[in-house]
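Continuing the series of single-chain predictions for the mutant panel. This is the parent chain; the variants come on the following pages.
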Amino acid sequence: MPSKYEAAFQSAIIDRERQICIDLLRQTPDLTLGDIHKLSRGSLARIFDAISVDELIAGSASGAPGVPKAKVGRPRGRRPAIQQPLVSDSAPAPEPVAAAAAPGVVNTRTPAGRLGYDNAILTALTDIGAPVGVAKLMARAGGSNLQARAALNRLINAGRVAWSGKARGTRYSLA
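Parent structure:
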């Protein structure tokens, strides 16, 4: 198991590679979809799998008058195996969740959304103040079982949360 520093470095490298690919794609508008498809089958596949059309367009078309923002649905196919950035004490505060979201609904599709949810889980753990199961954390922070467990795993890897027990008896507390 890599140390929390090694995991943070690996995550930073992956994020930087991804940003470089996005920047290069934006700087070469003469690329065809066929060219991008060929690139996405090689060694860059894990990076290209995680880039959406919205991210590519957002750099130049976002906010331009007369250019509608692309609606991006749920991606099809296998999910990329890219590790998300770890929660950081020095990270900026996440944007508030839109008021249109139903209670308990959490958006963890973006880094800002994941950071906000991770902070909500930490706040719930702080408020409770004792080892607690995932169900009680979900009752306070919202989200699905999968989202809560993914957030807890990120926080455990970051050294912010400790766990004990197995299966349904697993309890989480502040590290």
